[in-house]
Every structure is written in C-alpha cells, then in structure tokens.
Amino acid sequence: MKFRILSPVLVSVVLFSLGCKKEQQDNQEPTAEVDFRSMKVADGFDYSNTLTQNLKVDVQLLGNIPYDGAEFDVCLDNPVDYLDQPAELNKLRVVRSIKLDSKGHFETELKVPSHISKIYLLSKSVGIPEYFEVERGSQGYQLDYNPSQPTKKTSSAYNFIYTNALKAAGPADVQAVRSWSNVGFPDYLTTPQYVNPSFLQRFKAALPKGVPVPVGSNYLDSSIPRTIVLDLKPNQTANVSITFMFANSSNKNTLGYYWHPTNAKPASPAAIPSTNKGYIFPSTSRTATTNYSGLVAGNTVELIGPNADGSFPPNTTIGFFLISNSFTPTAVGTPGTINTSRTTYYSDYNLNTAGSTGYMAGKKERMVTLYDEATNKIVWSIEDGTDGDYSDIAFFASWNPNEAIDIRNFPKLPTVPRTDSDYVFYPAKNVKGTLLFEDCWPRLADFDMNDMVVHHNYTGLIDQVEQNKISEVNFTFDLASISAQQNNGFAVMVPNATPGQVAIVTNVNFDGANINSNKSINYSVESGHTSDVVIKVFDGATTILGGNNVNNTGAGSTTRAAETFSFTVKFNPAIPLADFNKISPFLIPRGNRNYEIHLANRKPSVKVNRALFGTDDDNSSVAANRYYLSNTKNSAGNITWAIDVPEKIPYPKSGQSMTAAYPRFVQWATSGATTNLNWYTNSAGNRILDKLTDSPN
Prior knowledge:
By secondary structure, the chain is mostly beta strands. It folds into 3 domains: 11-22 and 49-147, Immunoglobulin-like (Sandwich); 180-404, Sandwich (Jelly Rolls), CATH 2.60.120; 425-693, no CATH class. The strands form 7 sheets. Strands 1, 2, 3, 4, 5, 6, 7, 8 and 9 form a 9-stranded mixed sheet that branches. Strands 22, 23, 24, 25, 27, 29, 30 and 32 form an 8-stranded antiparallel sheet that branches. Strand 7 (118-123) and strand 8 (131-137) form a beta hairpin. The radius of gyration is 31 Å and the shape is elongated. The model is unreliable at 1-25 and 151-176 (pLDDT under 50).
C-alpha cells in the first residue's frame, strides 16, 4: 500500500507492496498472427480476467481511536482530479462500498480486473484523508492508517515562552511566539482533543459535502450566534481552545481568531486592532493537495487571550476569520507565508462582502454553527467557495469553565440514523463487462467469439447484519450482438444457493425502475435445481434481435439497438459474497436445455447432459473438476468456448479469431495470465481495429 499525500511526520501507514505488478508495463510486442488451435495453453488455465484478492482495512483517529462506522467506496480509478466534481466522481469505477466495524476494521474478498495493481479507497467520512491509494501486495490490498500527534511543548514551557515574549515585546507582538512549518503545520499544538467517530458521523449527516444548505434553513438564521460571547463573572477568566475536524477544500486557507469587548462590536474589519488577532491554523488545505499542511482531526490549538496568562477576561467576544487561499508553502526549514490581502471571511456576517457567483450570490453568511450535546462542543463549518454546502473547513471549540459560554442559542447537531446501503459491483458501478461466446460446443469452430455477445453488470446489496453476505442481486444483461445460425438461449446461475433461499424475483432494479426493453417480461427461478439458483434470461436470441447476424459483419448483417434484460433476486437467508463472485452466466445452444456453455472451469447445472463431456473436442471431466476446455484432437488443447471481460470491448468481426483481433491475447493465455494482463484494453498494440466490430452497443 502506498499513500502518496500525508506527511510521514504525522501519519503512520503500513506499506504492503511486495510482489506488485505495474499496470501496462509487461506488454510484450505481439507476435505474428497465431492460429488459436496452435496456442499452447497450460492445463488448469481458466481464462479469467479477474483476481479475487483479500482487502483488509484498519483506520484509526488521533489517539488510537478506531473509526467505527467510517465508510469508503473502493475504486479502480484515482479520484484525486475529481474531488470537487460530484458528477465526475459518480463516473468512477466503484467495485464495493464498505463500512468499518467498531474496531475500525473491515475485511473481505475483492474481485478486480487482473491488470489493476492498485485500488483507491474514497472516503465518505470526514476527519480522515479523502482517499487512500493502496497497492496490491502478496497479502492482497491492505491499509493500516493511524495518524500521530507530534511531540508538543509542555504547558509550563509554553507559558514560559509566552510570558517572557510578552514581557519583552509587549502585547502587539504576542503572536510572534507562534510559528509553523513550511507547509503550515503549527509548532504550537497543545494536548489533542480526541474526536469520537459518532461525532464526525453526526456532523457529516447534518452538513453533507456537496449538498447546498437550503435557503431558509435555520442553520443560516442570522439570529444564531457565530461568535463566542463569554459569560463570566467579575474577575473570572476563561480558556478557549480550537480543534481541527477536517478540510474538504483544496484552498490553502488560513484560519484565525479575533476578540473585542462584547459591548464594542467592530463596524468593519479595519476596526479590529491587529493586537486583537491571532492565527490558529496557518493552512487548512485538505489531504489531497500538494504541500498538505498535515492537520488531522483532533489537532488542537489553545487561543491566546489578552490576559498575561493567555486567558480571556469577562465582557469578551471571540470571533473567527478565514483568509481565502492565503498560505504559500516554502522550502523545508522556512515557515510558509500568509498573504493577508486575500479575501477574508468573518464569523460575523456583517463584516463580509456578499458573494457574487453560484449559490453564494448575494449571501454574506460564511459560517454556520452547531452544538453537539453528546460532546459539549460548538462546531463552526465554513463555506469558502460558491457551492453553499458549508462543509469546506470545520473546527470545534472547547472551553473552561464550562459555564463560560451559553450554548442555548446554538442549533443542536441532529442525531441522524444511517439510511444508506452498501453494495458490491461487478465489474464496477455503472460499468458493464463483455461476455463472448462460441456456440458449437462440444466442437471447436473459428474462435471469433461473437456467436453471442452480452454486456453484463451484477450489483449486490450487502446484508445489513453480515457485511460479507448479499441479500439481493440485480442482474442487467444487454444482448448486443449475434453471429450464429443457431437460435440460442441464455441463463445465469448463482452457485451453492438453493431455490428455497429465493424470496422474490422482480423485473425492477434497486431504484425501482423497470429498464427491460420488454417491460412486461417476467423472470422466475428455473425448476429442477436443488443446490444452485438458475434464472433463464431469454430464449431465442435470433428471434429477439430479428436475424442471425446482427451488429456484426458479413452477408445479411443488420444493425439494431441492444436488447436489455434486467431483474432483481432477493435471497433469504443472504448468500455469501464468495458465491456472488462466482455467478456463472451461460449460453444454451439452440435452446436445447441439455446443453450449456459456461466459462472455463465453471461447473454446469444439473440439467446439462454429462454424457457430452469428453466428446468431440471437449475435455471436461467431472472427476477432475475440469469443464469447458478442449482436448488435443484439433488443437494444442485447453481452448475455451466463453470469455468474460470486465469492461465493454469491441468484439471480433465474423471469421476473425480472437488471436488475430487481440494479438496480446496469445501471450496472456499462453503465459497463464502472468503477462499482458490488460490484453483487451485500449492500450497501444492491444487491438487490431480492422478485425474488430465497432458496435453501436
């Protein structure tokens, strides 16, 4: 695992990168065109383009606190360029959503394309990095994230430095005793305020990233306090500290504070004396930004007040300001600089200029406040841009004595139960794979693998009790092309499930939509099975598409839209994730139910005529647990009749062998999938375009 962004001073990340293959670095130059019959494919090779790997995730917050309930999307694509583009984030290839347990732990098996050497965990929770890059190692994909708190000055040492600086320089230069690193990490942190995971989850639910706060929301009520008004008795003093929660903004903003007598509210920013200001966090850039400051949830700064000991007197109001994108990193060893001339937003909206663009046009309010009863904390959350989600930077205040702040006028942070669901996707969310079939089993034919072409996607709903079980599966199949003289059927099998586990089969997806081309079509569990669940998807592909050469080439070829078949199967009890990962689609030649053509080494259903095994070119053996691979009568052996590719690819033209259309297919197959793992992708040299059909589907 490699995490590219966080400072090594602040984060301890366990690396697991042994034995990794780098994507697209082992492509061999394609050899001269190879007749598929001469390919020497090793025994046992199953033509799989995916790997099932272990995924193990452990995430802690500052103070070794397990992040109970932290949520992630497991992506095949790097999300770094799309963190501020929700529409683009939704296009990422997501293969799984996960939720950590009470120990901040999650473990599962993950089915991914074989050529993918790294995955990305996109956080849906706050207070931790926005994403992690995890490389595949000898133990699969493993992440162990635990931020560390740097050694701090002791309280007595801090007070000594402060007091002596104050005596020597006077109050005007009190901030001079505070400094920071070249990227803005403060060297004046005090004892951290450890953050409870449920606190972060409540806040995320109240102000979700990317969702504008509605006009008229009580969060934007101008009567709500955005400053701290100290309610102290004469001669009583208060100490106030500020704790970082998270930053969702790429801007290198500077967070500061100011104070004034409660009965002398400043009429403008210029009316705030420079002696009444201080910096809290010089840079609040998020983790996905170059020169990230290194702040993590729980880092805490004690505010310096006007009293000699740094406390605040009665009749004092404390406000906050944010200088937009003001911090400039410098060379290591030199503190970064703050540009105070940049646009500044204040907690008192009367000191702000109204926004001019986006959601913030005409709005002056830049901060919302919420009170969390469970922790007795007041949270400030800031809008530094134009989308109005008020979730760009968040921090909370702690104070002593407890009665120093009247919390009654702050809106309460709501307790919002988790209502979303987790899913597992194959090949990925919003991605369809390609099933390519030859329909002449048990005989070999021309290996153009286009007798039937089906695009497919399976989405599994994770059981709410057991995260490695699936309670519902939505299947979507697009019959894209046929080039066959036979009127073939198609079905899908869930191995090891029993018909008695199927609670219902519907023709709607998880959104409640019927996306079938034929809206009135109904699906049901095929009878006669006891240890597998089989759903017949359709009979007669030629009848359905209106011809025996559709969306391909050659005499009589026609073009038409793909036919979509979609349904959802609900299981009770839920099925293991391992069985979801072994879902087996198969072709039924000529609609003859005694014939089945499965992917290599996939066990057929009980309805297949086993007397056909070992006949003609087939080398299947129930005893050897070997299925749908050829013998050596008419080839070098181990040729398949079906291939599953985990993305949508063009398929060979009629009469063009896979070995001619995809020249690196040969190296991949003959190496036993140790080289050219991305043989089917659009990388240079992988595809011979004039041998492939540019299908509209």
